[in-house]
Amino acid sequence: MEDFLDRTSGGKKEQTMTMETNQRANVMAIDFIAIFAILWRRRKLIFFGTLAATLLAAVFSFFIPRTYRSEGFYQLGNPEKRIEKNFFNDKETSEEEKAEENKNLIGIPIPLYKKSAPQFFNPNRLYLSAREGKIFSEKDLKKIKTSFRTAADISQWVRPMYAFSKGDMRTLAQMPKDGSNSVIGLDLSFEADSPKEAYNYVSFFGQYVRDCLLYVSLFNYVKDEYSKILSELSMNENNIIDLQFGMLQNTNKILDIKAILTKYPESVKIENRQLVSVQDQGFRFLGPVTQLVGIESALAEQRQSLAALEREKEMLSIKREYFSRCNEALSKSSGNGGIIFQQLKNIKSDIFVEKDLRQGTVKEVFNDLNIDLQIFDLAFYTNCRFVSGPTFTFQYVKPRKSIIVGLTCFLSFFFFIVLTLFLYWWQSNKKKIQSLIF
Predict the structure, then answer these.
(1) Phi, psi angle pair for 357, to nearest 5°
(2) Do both 293 and 311 map to the same domain?
(3) Do residue 29 and residue 79 come from a single domain?
C-alpha cells in the first residue's frame, strides 16, 4: 500500500514539473512572438532608420581626412663590400682578425648603433636636422615640433632590423659559427595626409639616421685619433731623448778608447782571440780596437733608429696639426654629420696645400688621411641607402570605409530595436508613470 502511494505521489510530481516546464516554454514563445510583433509594427522605423544612419556614415566617411602610408628599408652597410680599416672598434686587432671581421661584417655593429640611437631618437635633434635640411616648409616644421615630442614618437617609425632576430635564435638554437649579430638596416615608415608628405618623411628619416651614425663615427674617430697621436708624439720625443743620450755616451766612449790607444800604442797588437768573462761588463776585457768597432756599429744602428724616430715625429706632427684643427671644428659644430665630414675634407686640403707632397713623410700622411675619409665615404654615402622604398602610393590606409559603414549599420540596427521596445514600454506605462509623478 505504501509503495503504491509513493508511486502515485511520484507520478503526480512528475506531471506537475512537466506542466510547469510546458507553461514556461509557452510563456517564452508568447514573449518572443509578442516582441516580434512589436518590432514588426515598427519595421519601417527600424529599416529606414538603419538605412539613413548607414548612408549618413557612408557620406561622412568621404569627408574624413585620408591617411597615406609610405614605407622603406634603409640598408646600413653593404655585405658585398669590405671595409679595409675597422674604425668602429677601439681595440687594436691583427691583420688576420681585421680580415675575418671585414669578411663577416653585415650592417653596423650593435655597439655603434646603441651609441647612435640616443642621437636619432632625440626630438630636438630631429627638429634641427629637419630645419637644416630645408626640405620641409614652415608648416611642416611646426608639425614636426608638435608631433615628435618624445623618443617614443620617433621610435614607432624607425625600427632596427637585426641580422639575427629572436626567432632566428630559436630556430638556429645558437649563433652561426661564422656570423655575428648586427643591425643590417632600418624599417622606416610614416603616415601623413598625402602620399608626397609620407614619402618625404620616410626619405628624411633615412638621411637623418645616416647623418647621426656619421656624426657619432666621426666624433669617435677624431677624438680617439687626436688623443692617440698626442700620446704617441710624447712617447716618440722620449725615445728620441733616450737615443740621443745613448749616442752621446757611445761617442764619448769612442773618444776615450781612442785616447787609450794613443796612451798605449802597443794595445793595438793585443790578440783579439782571448778568453773573456761571460759576466756583465765582460766586454771590457776585449781589445780596444775590437771594442771600438763594436761601439761604432752600435752607434750606426742608433743613427738609423734616430732617423726613423725623426721621420715618425714629422709624420705625427702633421697628423697632430690636422686632428687638432678637426677637434676644434668638432667642438664648434652643430652636430650635423654631413657638415662635419665636409669640414674634415676642407681642413685636409688647407693643411696640405702649403706642404710639399713630394716628400715621403708628407705624402704618406696625406695618403693615410685620404684612406680614412674614403672609408667613411664608402660606409655612409655608398653602402647606406634605400634598398626598398620609400613607397609612393595613392592607396590610403585610413579611414577604412567598409568598416565604418558596416559597424554603423550594425550599431544603428541594434539602436532602433532598443528604441522600438522603449517606445512600446513608454506607451504602455505612460499613464501609470504620469499618475505616479503627479
Answers:
(1) -70, -5
(2) yes
(3) no
Contact criterion met (CB below 8 Å) for 403 and 54: no
Look up residue 382 and give its DSSP letter.
I
Is residue 276 within 8 Å of residue 286, measured between CB atoms? yes
Element (H, E) at 386: strand 385-388
Contact 213, 108 (CB under 8 A): yes
Q: Which domain holds residue 281?
A: 223-386
Do residue 58 and residue 71 come from a single domain?
no
Report CA-CA distances (Å) from 157 to 12, 160, 306, 398. 75, 10, 59, 17
Q: Which residues contact 284 (CB under 8 A, 6 or more apart)?
A: 291
**Mutual orientation of helices 337-352 and 360-377 as an angle, nearest 10°?**
160
Domain count along the chain: 3
Claim to verify: residue 277 and residue 297 sit in the same structural domain: yes
pLDDT tens digits for range 328-345:
998 888 788 888 999 999
Which of 159, 185, 217 is the last residue before a domain boundary?
217
Q: Closest by alpha carbon to 367, among 348, 353, 339, 354? A: 348
Q: CA–CA separation, 266 vs 250, rounded Å? A: 23
In a domain, 23, yes or no: yes
DSSP state of 378: I
> In this structure, are residues 420 and 50 in contact, taking their beta carbons and an 8 Å threshold?
no
pLDDT tens sequence across 264-293 = 776 555 555 444 444 555 455 566 777 788
57-116 pLDDT, tens digit per residue, is 777 767 677 788 899 999 886 433 444 444 444 444 554 554 445 444 567 788 878 888
Alpha helices in 333-400 (DSSP H): 337-352, 360-377
User: CB atoms < 10 A from the CB of 81, how many?
Assistant: 12
